[in-house]
Amino acid sequence: MGATTSVFSFSQEWAKRSSFARADKNADFTKNSRVPEVRNTVLDGKFTTPFEFYGQHTLVMCGQYFDAKLTDKNPGHKNEIYDDFGVRQWALFAENEWWVTPDFSFTGGLRMG
Fold it and tell me: Which segments cross the bilayer (predicted)?
């Protein structure tokens, strides 16, 4: 039986877009009034535990949380109001790899979320 190991990660993307355009090649550039902003956040965690029970096993248990947000004008509304759009997701899952022999294994898993 081996020691349980863990891996955790956190990442975040945060961006804002500004753009400029001109009506024709002789006109000055003007800033577009639409400035969308996105922010995506991901948190992952994983535990791995090797053990013996009628062969070698590797049990992996993981979780993930994802939060995505967008602030933007809705072109369909044809107004200058910024709306917030977003989604939150999470998942939990477990997997067991069972080595019946050195050359043959079964893998089974469950997922929720």
Answer: none
Cβ distance 66 to 88 under 8 Å?
A: yes
- Give the pLDDT means over successive 10-residue stretches in the chain (113 positions): 91 93 86 90 97 93 97 83 94 95 93 90
Residues ≥6 apart with Cβ < 8 Å to 18: 31, 32, 35
Alpha helices, DSSP H, located in the chain: none
CA distances from 14 to 6, 68, 70, 71 (A): 27, 10, 10, 11
d(CA 53, CA 51): 7
